[in-house]
Amino acid sequence: MDLDLPSSLIDRTFILLNSQSGALETVDPGLLVIYSLLLVVLIIGSALVSGSEVAFFSLSHNEFAQLEQEEGRRAKAILKLKEIPRTLLATILIANNFINIAIVLISDLIVELSLGDTPFTQASAWLSTNTNGLLSAETWSNVLSNSVTIVGVTFILVLFGEITPKVYAQVNKMQLAKFMAQPLVFMVKIFKPLSSFLERGSSLIERRLEARTGALSPSREEIDRAIELTVVDDMTGNSEIDILKRIVAFGDVSIKQIMTARVDVIAIDVKSNFHEILDSVRESGYSRLPVFEEDFDKITGILYAKDLLPYLEEGPDFDWHHLVRDNLIFAPEAKKINIMLKEFQSSRMHLAIVVDEYGGTLGIITLEDILEEVIGDIKDEFDDEIEVVYQKLDKNNFIFEGKTLLNDIYKILEIDSNYFESIRGEADSIAGLILEIAKTIPTINTEFRFRSFVFKVISVDKKRIKEVKITKL
Question: Which residue in 98, 81, 87 sits closest to 199, CA to CA?
Fold first, then answer.
């Protein structure tokens, strides 16, 4: 069929065959170009919004501290957004969804304008015939057209709207965060009604889940497994795993579990002469020594070794009592070590006296004791090579002093810090654990079994259990 059309019209239009009506449709190429440019702009917008999510939520504390030193508007905008993380996340999700919906609609228009129904006519007719009229040819044509749009848009969004920008944001998070800070502040204001609705909805769901399940927090075992899965299993990784597990358990450890018991504390009697004090400091190697009057339940202060340095040449009758500092910290045995750490930080003290419910002295706890719960034993030039006294007979048999703390037992036997939780009661030492099981002081060679361990009492007197043999089954 010959068409007699003006050349200006040919220059301005594409000629498409409408298979349904047999008519001819004309499409303005300028409109197609506008839609294509709009699609490119929307894809760039989707990429920037998706990348900004990774950029903002991966900024470290050090990077935020660096931003606080800057005076630019972008830095201030980032710090402002930091204070509203939920609102920021809701805004990013809303903006991204709006952009993605617009991309789908524009893509559908572009496919319809550029291809029309012609490419799908024969295929839809063939499908309708070979499926015994399951769907009409028109329906098959719509299905094919929509499938092309969905597949093409999905590929574009995943590659250019998700993967590429997020990979870029991981490497250039600060630059992207600064670039998107002010646009996101503007979007937070624009989408405030919707983001507030989302926040209230998510909070309601969280409260419902908490009421139904009791808590949203994972168990200790689940956290430990997650740590083991995410940290690389090598020499360095094993150390990191131990530290992360200790951090998780940090808030559950009480002072009584890690303190130095009163029988092991080196203290000074107020009646001691100056040379006796110097000998005690020299032999112990400690920088701080408690000072007591009459007995250890009446501690009057702490003597710092550094305060003695100007008086080393003094005689035994030198009055040293004015060097004793009376600013003491008394801590109950049940206090958690994370709270004790904050108290040490606020008071600028390194040593506290641990007391029981009656005010009697149980022992002392130091800042070093608390730090060792996270990073492991801290050794200095005054520490002995072996801090916990025990014998390792072979890989499955150990002999411990009865006063050895359960926390040290856990570390040496390489078992979980809650392993004996069901039977330990109030016990903090291996002797106390056996007393909890036996309910009385057992005789020599008495054995007790718990799960995969056997405890055998090998030394005991009338007052206490002195040595215990532990065997791994």
Answer: 87
d(CA 266, CA 411): 25
CA 407 to chain centre: 23
Per-residue pLDDT tens digits for 10-30: 343 333 334 333 333 455 677
Residues 6+ apart with CB under 8 A from 188: 81, 84, 87, 88, 91, 195
Q: 368: phi > 0 → left, psi -120 to 50 → alpha, else beta; which?
A: alpha
Tokens of 360: 């009697």
- Number of H helices and E strands in the chain, helices first, is 19, 14
CB 106 within 8 A of CB 40: no
Query: Which residues of the chain are under the pLDDT cut of 70?
Result: 1-28, 114-146, 210-221, 223-224, 226-239, 376-388
Mean pLDDT of the chain: 78
Which domains occur in the chain, in start order? 7-209 (no CATH), 220-250 (no CATH), 253-375 (3.10.580.10), 390-472 (3.30.465.10)
Pairing of strands 465-472, 268-269: unpaired
| CA distance linking residue 258 with residue 253, whole number of Å | 8
Convert the pLDDT of each residue in 215-228 to its tens digit: 555 666 676 676 66
User: pTM of this prediction?
Assistant: 0.45
The burial of 129, by beta-carbon neighbours within 10 Å (0-12 exposed, 13-18 middle, 19 or more buried), is given as exposed
- 400 backbone dihedrals φ, ψ, rounded to 5°: -120, 150
- Geometric angle at alpha carbon 60, from 59 and 66, rounded to 5°: 95
Helix runs in 318-426, H state only = 337-347, 367-375, 406-413, 421-424
- pLDDT tens across 117-162, in order? 555 555 555 655 566 656 665 666 666 666 777 777 788 788 887 8
Q: Which two tokens stand for residue 94?
A: 């809303």
Q: Which amino acid is at 335?
A: K
- How big, in percent rounded to 5, are the helix, strand and coil portions of the chain? 55, 15, 25
Residues 274 and 400: their CA atoms lie apart, in Å, by 37
Tokens describing residue 241: 């795993």
